[in-house]
Specification:
By secondary structure, the protein is of the alpha+beta class. The chain contains two helices and four strands; from the N terminus they run ααββββ. Strands 1-2-3-4 form a four-stranded antiparallel sheet, covered by helices on one side. A hairpin with a 2-residue loop joins β3 and β4.
Length: 137
Amino acid sequence: MMATVVLGIAAAGVLLPFTGGAAVRAEGTRRTLAAKLAADLVEQIISIPFEELEQIIADPGDGSYVDYVIEEQGHVKDAGGTEFTDPSYANFSRTATCEYVYMPQESEAADPRFILVTVRVYYSGRPIATANRLVGK
């Protein structure tokens, strides 16, 4: 009986580093894919001319913020608008927001010259990557 317990402990001690390494590798793969998804969506948004991007930004009352894109979990799309079908994308979701940014020397009464694009990528509802880009006139 004692030998079985000792054997179980020894086996766990040998296998634990391998299972831990596999988990770290999977997390690294997810983060790499999330960074790619964030960068791709930022590139799609900044390819829109500044004037059109301004029209996309709605005025919900405070005049500065809008959700531009929300892609639900399992429905992340490529640049062509086609959903990814690979199972590795199944747990990812993305949101993108655009907001006006005023420089310290500008007053908020003037037309803004910059828009901050922020893309957040989630894996199973947990934030995993964020990408920001400042777009100017």
